[in-house]
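As a representative case, the lines below give one protein's residues and fold tokens.
***
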Amino acid sequence: MAQLSRPVAAVLAVVGLGVLLLVWASTASGLIEGHVFRTGCFGNPPQDVPPSSYCSRSTVAMATVVASSSEKPALVAHTDSGGYFSLRLPAGVYMVAAWMPRSQEVGAGSVRTSSQPGGATPFGPIRIQGGTTVHVDVSIPSVAM
């Protein structure tokens, strides 16, 4: 059996260590993913009218999603054009919230519909375990008109 030269052995050792670190990192962190929606029901319909005829739910592009923890720095993601976001986080418990960009808070007649930055959700707890994916859909309530 041929012996490896020292430079080749060193490269193989570094590559092996990198693979081990990659495997460890994927099991020491988890993924939170989901969509941000703008939801709301408008008006006061009769009881026999289904909610789907007066309620709406649409995805929010460029919404900001924040995951914060008392032990780790806060991480931020923005939704894509379909309202989708994902954050890779170290295992732990996080408080997660989302808000819409100010440009999307303007309602009919160019009147601002919220005093907050585009509408926001309260923070809610999410537990991330290593090597897992948690799916969370976040709804930002619309202001009734």
In short: The beta strands are 29-41, 55-59, 64-68, 75-78, 84-90, 92-99, 124-128, 133-135, 138-141. The chain has one domain: 29-141. The two ends are 80 Å apart (CA to CA). Residues 29-141 form a domain with the Immunoglobulin-like fold (CATH 2.60.40.10).
